[in-house]
Specification:
The protein has 549 residues and is α+β, with helices and mostly antiparallel strands. It has helices at residues 37-53, 57-68, 73-96, 100-106, 110-127, 134-155, 162-181, 187-195, 198-204, 210-221, 232-242, 270-273, 295-302, 363-376, 394-402, 447-457, 526-529, 535-548, and strands at residues 15-18, 25-26, 228-230, 245-248, 251-255, 261-265, 281-285, 288-289, 309-316, 325-332, 334-337, 341-348, 351-356, 381-385, 392-393, 409-415, 419-423, 436-440, 461-465, 473-480, 485-495, 511-512.
Length: 549
Amino acid sequence: MIKSMHKMSIRIVSIIVIISMIGIVSVLSVSAQTSNDTTVYETLLRQAEHASNGSMWENACEFYEEALKFTQVEQREDVELKLEMCRAHWAVDKRYGDGSVAKHIRSLSFEQGCDIVKRIWMTIREQFYQPLDTDRIIHKALMQMIMVLEKKLESDLDRLNRETIERLSKDLQEILNEVKRTSDYGFDRLYYRLSGLSIQSEKAGLGDAWPMVELAYALAASLDRYSYLLSPEQYDRMYDQLLGHYSGIGVDLIFTDQYPFVFDVVPGGSAQQSGIKPGDRLHKVDGKDLNGKNSEEVRKLLTGEQNSETILTVLRNENSRENARLLTLAVRRGTIEAQTVRDCRILSGKTGYFRVTSFDFDTAWQMRSAIEQLKRDHVESLMIDLRNNGGGVLDAAVDAARLFLGSGMIVTVKSNHESVKYRAGGDNFACFDMPVILLTNKNTASAAELFAAALRDHQRAILVGDKTFGKGVVQTIYPITGFDCGLCITTANYIPPDGNAFDGIGLEPDRKVKSNDNNPEITFSALDMISLNDPFIQSALARVSAGSS
């Protein structure tokens, strides 16, 4: 498939995706001065609690996840409970952040709601890659449904009936208590209990389909951190992104606990044409302050009708804080054709370089074109930057690996039903034999890790940088026919050529580089990454020099 293909021409039942973790990058801000595990642990807990108090659930999850690495056995259960609660809040915020889920629920009848939740559960039972702990999934789903009502009481009282919402929440809590008291509660019993809440839900102003459709969304989001049900609008948007184009302004953002940074701008996109630069700090969108807002809230503000205009206020540092100034820029939203291979250039001597931002359907073709361009410039070694590459499409990562591997195993994808082996060779791709260095960091995830592991295991590349994220599972998107939505669930894990799975572990680099990613005082952007002063690039170039001497 190529990027120009319209999504309606994709005649497939499902699409295998290694879901991107870092479409919008988050940055932990643990001080570099932390000197021991106890200090790091206490610092992370304080930052997690601060983020939770500010309803910054995404950041809170990251801090708690990091804290678990330093947790003593007696503290672990408490941290895991807090993490689970934050993940539930974050799942709800993501679900309702763009307004499309609420719109979807209101468009369906009670009968349609019953149909969709049964079909979702059937697909989960048949396709999820691990044995199901049904009662635990139901417990988490009910927690999310109660959270939804709590949030609605805080924000939607102008059109909802408070008294009925509170009664509905109490009924859900009663069902949750039943689940806690009963072993083997089961989906059928839950389905029967929730179907009896439809009239109450209608009186509350939520629509009679809400209990069943919300249950479908909540069940999907309770499987693992990567699974969820996409609303019709989210489903369309994901296909556009996988095909390499979407509607927006063309910026990649880094989120801290304050204002987001512009990590990169899409070449030729609206933001670049309007003067937005990597390193700018985004303060306002159409007058709305962004301090502390999460990625879903900011994304909703930045998206809008095609050709509509948005006014951005950015803080730009001109070499020093003293020269920082606020700028107001008008940006027109449009269709963004996002190239995933960027900044192709000769870095030093005869070493070529390019960044791969994600793996979509034509990333391998873009990589091939970049390599051929560099070969015409007589480069003798290649540096591929995978930092902040959060993943993409499985086949795209496999095709990219085939550019460098003439034969052998690339990856084994293992599901409940089968094991599929992807091998190199047997296609029309040229096999490039120049030495390769891959730059990685903690945000290198999923398909990018698959690509890196395949090349390293065949001694075709060395890894320079930080340990990678550690996501070794595959998601499949199943269209829910008749409802225009899609179920994205984890269906398999993948095993690299050496047989050592790295899900939850990550890939250790061959040459480790200490980065400044965790220092909130340092503005980190794509421009910093491609600088010869970048420590990753310096270390990689030193490795090239050592190898050629």
